[in-house]
Each structure stands twice: as C-alpha cells, then as structure tokens.
Amino acid sequence: MRIESKRREFQLARAYVPFQIMNNVYNSKEALKKGTLFPELYMPYKYEKRY
C-alpha cells in the first residue's frame, strides 16, 4: 500500500473557534501590544528562567 493513500484516510486537525461577542475589548494600542482585541482571549505564555 502506498503511503499517499494512507494519509488521506486520517483527518489532521479540527479547529474549535467559539463565537466572540464584542462586549469587552481593548483599545487599539493595547490590542496591538497583546495581540488580541478581546481580553478573554489574552493568554500570555509563561516561562521559567532556567540557569
């Protein structure tokens, strides 16, 4: 069996995108800094410094 035909049998990913209601939004400057207009979607990466 060829590998190409096997790949078509599986779905790689499925996105879940909830509807966003525009009630709380950042101002334009803050939205550009945080990368999102909606405070509910702001999830910064937290990392530890390892020395």
H-E order? HH
Mean of pLDDT: 82
Helix count, DSSP H or I runs of 4 or more residues: 2
Structural class: mainly alpha
Distance between the termini: 49 Å
The total beta strand count reads 0
Shape: flat
| Main sheet makeup | none
Helix-residue proportion: 10-25%
Low-confidence stretches: none
Task: Give the percentage of residues in beta strands.
Answer: under 5%
Describe this structure in words.
This protein is mostly helical. It has a domain at 13-45. The protein has two helices and no strands. It is flat.
Compose a concise summary of this entry.
This is Spore coat associated protein CotJA. The protein is mainly alpha-helical and 51 residues long.
Task: Please describe the topology of this protein.
Elements: H1 3-7, H2 28-34
List keywords for this structure.
single chain, 51 residues, mainly alpha, flat, Spore coat associated protein CotJA
